Amino acid sequence: MTIQPKILGLHDFYTDRFILDLSDHELESLTQQGGNIRKRMIKRLGGYATSAIEGLSKLGAETTLITSVDNHAYSQLEEWLPKTDLSLVRKNGVPGKSIVIESTNKEGELVKIMIDSDLDSNSEFGPSDLTSKDIEKINESDYVLVGNWGVNTYGTELLREVTQLAKASGTYTFLEAGDVSGKDLGELRELVDTIEDVGLDFWAMNEDEVRQFAYAIENEYDYGSAKSVLDLYRISPLDSAKVLQKELKKTKILMHSKDYSWMEGQVVPTYNIKEIRTTGAGDTWNAGFIYGHYKKLKGDALLKFANASGGFLVANGYRPSFQEVVEFIQNNKLRSQELIPTEQPAFTDYTQQVPIKSNYSSAP
To answer: Would you place residue 236 in the very low, low, confident or very high pLDDT band (cuts 50, 70, 90)?
Structure first.
């Protein structure tokens, strides 16, 4: 019998309500004129940690989830995660809810609009919420994944505590910080300093998030302020990943995007596929990376496996099994290298070109 990795995820969970088949024209009309429209809607599991745990369970890992929900949401988790250990899930919380709109723009590309609830248990989970059973599970796991730092008031403290506990028992630690548009530069810098101090193993992010954190490092003098999206988009994501990796020598920086992924200076294209869903692709990429790492994949083979895991969801609308990832790799070609952006000099002083804002704007 094959030994599978034991993986713990905490702490965010959302019920995603997808609005399907909304055209670019319909969306534009609604935003300009208002009105009523009937569309097919479906509910799916969401949350950075919970989605990655679903992906890992589908790949074959032994998974455990820590989160706070109510009784109804717990019943949904039992349905959506039939093979995951839910014994550490709290039933006295307020589950998160999201509305997700995926629409095709005029260029034929999928664009996503996500609206998350803000009065839920995802924003208030700290070290004091960890029980003795939680700590025992951290110690016996092969990997522990912390998700959605961006909405958690106690996210930095939680990551510090979890990483220190995991390090003591030889457990790998993995962070998916999520959307950080609600954080200021001081909070971003504090997280980077904490990661450097505790020696987090893996930190995954998309090209927008890596820009934001790299900018926070390069502009320490500007605490409490942030750049606009236009300014951030002038910074190369590959440059930004290098800045973060140079700062955090004990942590592997992982960047994934629609066209490529990056690790330790190595860039691997994603797969050339037709997109039918993008929400959750990053979480599924994370699942593929963790599972591939456990299976001793390295370098481009590891990034290809992670790219294929995320790509399978984009092409098929659901998370894959291990065999489905293998077949996906065999049956699909990589995107052109030309889609990988060229690097540029990092962090020119753009403050003279675009006004600094008080908070990061949400990236499109």
So the answer is: confident
Q: Which of 286, 282, 12 is nearest to 147 (CA)?
A: 12
Give the CA angle between residues 107, 108, 109 to the nearest 5°. 95
| Phi, psi values for residue 114, rounded to 5° | -125, 130
What is the identity of the amino acid at 296? K
Whether 245 and 192 have beta carbons less than 8 Å apart is answered as: no
* pLDDT in the model for residue 119: 65
Which among 281, 312, 295 has a CA at the least distance from the CA of 143?
295
CATH class of the domain defined by 6-15+45-96+117-352: alpha beta
CA separation for the pair 229, 354 (Å, rounded): 9
* Token digits of residue 313: 């969801």
Residue 118: what pLDDT? Answer: 67
Residues 6+ apart with CB under 8 A from 26: 37, 103
Q: Please check whether residue 33 is in contact with residue 93, taking contact to mean a CB–CB distance below 8 angstroms.
A: no
61-65, 179-183, 328-332: least confidently modelled range = 179-183
Residue showing tokens 């930190």: 203
pTM for this predicted structure: 0.86
Instruction: Quote the CA–CA distance of 309 and 334 in Å, as a whole number.
Output: 13
In this prediction, residues 12-26 reach a mean pLDDT of: 77
Query: Which among 212, 250, 219 has a CA at the least distance from the CA of 233?
Result: 212
Give the sign of the dihedral formed by CA 76, CA 83, CA 128, CA 175: negative
CA dihedral 145, 151, 156, 160 (to 10 degrees): -20
| DSSP summary character for residue 129 | G
- State how far the Cα of 209 lies from the Cα of 188, in Å rounded to an integer: 10
pLDDT in tens, 121-169: 888 899 999 999 999 999 999 999 999 999 999 999 999 999 999 999 9
